[in-house]
Design goal:
The complex is a heterodimer. Chain A is α/β, with parallel strands linked by helices. Chain A has one domain: STAS domain (Transcription Regulator spoIIAA). Chain A is 39% helix and 36% strand. In chain A, strands 1-2-3-4-5 form a five-stranded mixed β-sheet. In chain A, β1 and β2 form a beta hairpin. The model of chain A has no long low-confidence stretch (mean pLDDT 97). Chain B is an alpha+beta fold. Chain B has one domain: 2-Layer Sandwich (Heat Shock Protein 90). Chain B has a five-stranded antiparallel β-sheet with strand order 1-2-3-5-4, with helices on one face. In chain B, β2 and β3 form a beta hairpin. In chain B, α2 runs antiparallel to α3. Chain B is globular and about 40 Å long. Classes of the chains: A alpha/beta, B alpha+beta. Chains A and B meet through α2 and α3 of A and α1, α2 and α3 of B. Chain A: InterPro entries: Anti-sigma_ant, STAS_dom, STAS_dom_sf.
């Protein structure tokens, strides 16, 4: 999986591409937790080019959301489609995140 | 049959497993793979507890009616006390079994709890005839 991050003053924009397996989820967790430790709390995660995300990847996104919400931060997911969108809906995680097309 | 001892070895096999599932039943391949991947993660991390001296095996069998997948580890066994309705929205872990349940028609463990069988019924309207499937 490719993980690209762009940072501006207020937010971290994360672009993911490929399939997110357990080993990729660990890398993503480490990267995003690093941004949180640096004081960032707004995350926009682009899933447009993600074709699969397993339960460990879903868990990392939940972990990030739980970390930033008490700091008045938020994780917004954009571009989820196909089976990835279906996974968020089936697990009801579409209620945990703001999901945008 | 696929046999491996670590996540790294499984990662190498993922594409082969996907290809076999596509040959078996293209329409259901990705959803079957989701269930297999979750089952294998459980086998590696919770079954074998990442002990690389222990194996995980995947057996994929196709009948005219269904695809049956067996995932077996060499751990001490797993007792499933969790029901699907217990899926907690804010939990960081524990969705794997729920995803398996969502993507197959039935699943069960052996008595010891180190082998899960997943069954997905075949829809004959979009799956290839049985005779065209690749034998294992």
């Amino acid at each position: 999986m490719e993980i690209t991050t762009n940072v501006n003053e207020k937010e971290v924009i994360v672009t993911l591409a490929g399939s997110m397996y357990v080993e990729d989820a660990a890398v993503l967790r480490e990267k995003l937790m690093g941004f949180i430790e640096s004081g960032y709390k707004q995350f926009i995660i682009n899933l447009h080019n993600v074709d699969y995300i397993d339960s460990s990847g879903l868990g990392v996104l939940v972990a990030i959301q739980k970390k930033v919400l008490p700091k008045e931060g938020h994780v917004t997911l954009t571009g989820a489609k196909g089976v990835v969108k279906e996974l968020f809906e089936l697990t009801r995680l579409n209620k945990v995140f703001t999901m945008q097309p | 049959m696929y046999s491996f001892s670590s996540l790294a070895e499984f990662a190498i096999l993922r594409d082969s497993i996907k290809r076999e599932l596509v040959q078996t039943c293209e329409e259901d391949a990705l959803r079957l793979f989701i269930a297999i991947n979750e089952g294998v993660n459980n086998a590696i991390f919770h079954g074998n507890k990442e002990d690389n001296t222990k194996k995980v095996q995947i057996i994929i069998e196709r009948s005219p009616e269904d695809v049956q997948i067996i995932i077996r580890d060499e751990g001490d066994g797993f007792v499933n006390t969790k029901k699907s309705a217990d899926m907690e929205l804010w939990d960081e872990n524990g969705r794997g079994l729920d995803l398996i349940g969502l993507y197959v028609d039935s699943c069960w463990w052996n008595t010891k709890g180190n082998e899960i069988t997943l069954v997905k019924k075949i829809n004959p309207t979009y799956c290839k005839p049985f005779g065209t499937c690749t034998s294992i």
